[in-house]
User: Which sequence fits this backbone?
């Protein structure tokens, strides 16, 4: 997820600056914040959905084996830390090339040596990999989209009530 944000930080920052300068008013600030957060969730949800659709339409299904996990610590602003486990999978592509790669989705670290079904799309010498499950293909982006609509709706109602 952080790689998506890094790729699109300029667009998100520009959106914040535009909204901030256009609507700067202390009464409107709360609604503006909700609207910006909602737009961010909507953007992320539709981007993930589009990426998943592209991989699903053009990719190749295969079996992969989880061989290890990459452990990443993340600390929030309050100092609480969380540990995320990103699976490292090994699979053989359609050309017979055995590939080992870290997935971008966090998972349960107790599944080492278990096979999973993936869909991969080879672009140049890199693979875009998606776990072939309903949650990652459908529900994960929908969660972002729903949260985006909720936050945007709250922001719009707030702004309308203040104007």
Assistant:
């Amino acid at each position: 997820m952080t790689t998506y944000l890094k790729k699109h930080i300029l667009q998100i920052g520009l959106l914040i600056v535009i909204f901030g300068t256009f609507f700067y008013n202390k009464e409107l600030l709360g609604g503006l914040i909700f609207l910006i957060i909602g737009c961010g969730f909507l953007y992320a949800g539709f981007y993930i959905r589009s990426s998943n659709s592209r991989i699903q339409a053009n990719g190749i299904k295969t079996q992969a084996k989880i061989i290890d996990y990459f452990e990443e610590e993340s600390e929030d602003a309050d100092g609480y830390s969380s540990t995320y486990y990103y699976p490292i999978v090994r699979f053989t592509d359609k050309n017979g090339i055995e590939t080992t790669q870290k997935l971008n989705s966090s998972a349960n670290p107790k599944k080492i040596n278990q096979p999973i079904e993936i869909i991969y799309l080879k672009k140049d010498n890199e693979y875009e990999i998606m776990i072939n499950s309903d949650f990652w293909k459908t529900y994960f982006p929908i969660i972002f989209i729903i949260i985006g609509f909720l936050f945007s709706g709250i922001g719009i109602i707030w702004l309308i009530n203040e104007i």
Remarks:
- The chain has a mean pLDDT of 83.
- The beta strands are 60-75, 81-92, 98-102, 115-123, 126-131.
- The longest strand covers residues 60-75.
- The longest helix spans residues 29-58.
